[in-house]
Write a structure and sequence with these properties.
The complex is a heterodimer of chains A (259) and B (216). By secondary structure, chain A is an alpha+beta fold. Chain A has a single domain, classed as Porin. Chain A has helices at residues 2-20, 28-45, 49-52, 199-204, and strands at residues 53-67, 73-88, 93-113, 116-142, 145-161, 164-167, 176-193, 208-226, 234-240, 246-257. An eight-stranded antiparallel barrel of chain A has the order 1-2-3-4-5-7-8-10. In chain A, helix 1 crosses helix 2. The two termini of chain A are 33 Å apart. In chain B, helix 1 crosses helix 2 (66-72), helix 4 crosses helix 5 (117-134) and helix 4 (92-112) crosses helix 6 (144-169). Chain B starts with 7 loop residues before the first strand and ends with a strand. Chain B has helices at 43-64, 66-72, 75-81, 92-112, 117-134, 144-169, 174-183; strands at 8-10, 31-34, 85-86, 142-143, 195-203, 208-214. The chains are: A alpha+beta (259), B alpha+beta (216). The A-B interface holds A 50-51, 53-55, 57, 83, 85, 97, 99, 101, 125, 127, 129, 155, 157, 179, 181, 223, 225, 227, 230, 232-233, 235, 258-259 and B 68, 87, 89-93, 95-96, 116-119, 121-122, 125, 144-145, 148-149, 152-153, 155-156, 159.
């Protein structure tokens, strides 16, 4: 986690330095201020809102370690997909609303809820939302492929279906599922194709990207849900966790700009 | 002399319906070609389109989920849910199937009205947000998954449907045309802006030709 934060910081500093050193005859500070002024001008006078808005989507692969109650843990590899609704703020900075969905299967995890302890194997789903800020550096991996750093807070809901389970009071049923509300953060870096032309032309030529993310999520509420009627689920019980379970998630995303 | 100056030597019989809006004749037009063309909209048009969809959501929600509205809905709950946002516990069928499909049709409605993809996404986002925060709260609080996934997954799906339906509709194959309309029903309605009506003809110099009729 600390290493990734450090990497992010290094990327931003190197990016700024690289931009400032680009054929300048001015001081670093003057160059830095001028660049910010240029970016603010771009914000005011650049492409229209419609042109700045873009949608990205792609596939994901994750590797995660879930730490649950009673020191139980599970290492899980799972596929998924992701989307980004992006707004280009300046030429280098972009705000995005990211959504990630992963599917998997858990083994031998313990959860506590309302005085009942359940040990379960079952299908696992994770829906995570991350408002992110992305900085596209001028550093190139190779020609027309630029590095970027990305990060932001995350909120997620993880669902575990009770398929093969044992609970201490014997009240849980197969139609029940556990949902875990979690929050945390996501940081990472990636490389994106930079196609020729202005922002709109770049968007329409559908550049592709590949990125590596790290998320750390802490569960703060466990809810038991009765899903026997799939059209209308009912909350049976919930518990705000004092010693939260947590997940470390490594994500590999690859996708393209849809429009 | 250009082909446009030549009067047609042959044109479809007057019995043939050459334009789908010609209600004086029964039957179908010869050929209709579909495409999407972006244009700018006046604020009044945007407000009208948003208003139509918003009005439809008020009508369709109780019609599509009568039991939920009857059993769980109340104005007391509406006041309680107003402004709240939660993670819902719904099954994947709703969150990853029903909502993205609804979102894709919203996206395709705005596309049919001539909005660009980005604008259609933005308007679909506004429409689904209005639905979540002012209509659905009659029965349940606004859901974070629905707020995001309806327009975003809907737009991703909508772009796929757009490409597929255009290929099917312009294939000339009746089965293809049927499925094209099935997956993109907005192409059936008069508000779809970019229909081109195509009629084969032969000009006086015996040159075969096609007459295009488009609406602007």
């Amino acid at each position: 986690m600390k290493i990734l934060f450090l990497l992010t910081l290094i990327f931003i500093i190197i990016g700024h330095k690289a931009m400032a050193d680009d054929g300048n005859s001015q001081s670093w500070t003057e160059e830095w201020v001028n660049r910010w002024v240029d970016q603010l001008k771009y914000l005011r006078q650049g492409p229209s809102v419609r042109e700045r808005l873009s949608l990205k989507a792609g596939l994901s692969a994750t590797s995660r370690v879930i730490h649950a109650a009673n020191s139980t843990e599970d290492h899980q590899n799972s596929p998924g997909f992701h989307t980004y609704l992006c707004f280009q703020f300046t030429e280098n900075w972009e705000l995005a609303l990211g959504g990630y969905v992963f599917f998997g299967r858990t083994r031998h995890l313990n959860f506590d809820i309302a005085g009942n302890q359940v040990r379960t194997n079952g299908h696992y789903r994770d829906t995570t939302f991350t408002p992110t800020i992305r900085f596209l550096t001028p550093l190139e991996y190779k020609q027309n492929w630029n590095w970027y750093v990305i990060g932001g807070p995350s909120w997620s809901q993880q669902t575990v279906k009770l398929e093969d389970f044992f609970d201490s009071t014997g009240t849980f049923r197969h139609q029940h599922k556990l949902t875990l509300l979690a929050n945390g953060g996501t940081i990472g870096f990636g490389v994106q194709e930079k196609t020729p032309g202005n922002h709109l032309a770049q968007k329409m030529t559908q550049p592709v990207y590949i990125e590596f993310l790290y998320s750390y999520m802490m569960v703060n509420r466990v809810t038991l849900v009765d899903a026997s009627d799939f059209s209308e689920v009912e909350t049976v019980n919930y518990e705000d966790t004092k010693r939260p379970s947590r997940s470390s998630i490594y994500v590999l995303n690859f996708g393209m700009t849809i429009f | 002399m250009g082909a446009e100056d030549l009067p047609p030597a042959w044109s479809p019989s007057t019995e043939v319906k050459a334009h789908p809006q010609d209600h004086s004749k029964s039957g179908r037009t010869l050929e209709i070609f579909y495409r999407y063309k972006d244009r700018d909209h006046r604020p009044k048009e945007i407000a009208k389109d948003l208003g139509i969809i918003y009005g439809l959501t008020w009508m369709l929600y109780p019609l599509t989920q009568p039991e939920t509205v009857r059993e769980k809905g109340s104005w007391v709950r509406y006041r309680h849910n107003f402004g709240q946002i939660v993670f819902d516990q719904d099954e994947p069928f709703w969150n990853w199937f029903v909502h993205p499909i609804s979102g894709s049709q919203l996206f395709l409605y705005y596309r049919a009205r001539g909005y660009s993809r980005s604008s259609a996404l933005g308007l679909a986002f506004i429409s689904s947000t209005l639905f979540e925060f002012t209509v659905e709260i009659y029965t349940e609080p606004a859901s974070a998954q629905d707020l995001y996934q309806t327009p975003i997954l809907g737009a991703v799906l909508g772009v796929g449907i757009e490409y597929t339906s255009l290929a099917l509709l312009n294939s000339g194959n009746p089965l293809g045309i049927f499925f094209g309309h099935l997956i993109n029903p907005c192409t059936l309605f008069p508000f779809f802006e970019e229909k081109t009506f195509l009629t084969p003809t032969v000009f006086q110099n015996k040159a075969p030709g096609l007459i295009f009729v488009g609406e602007f």
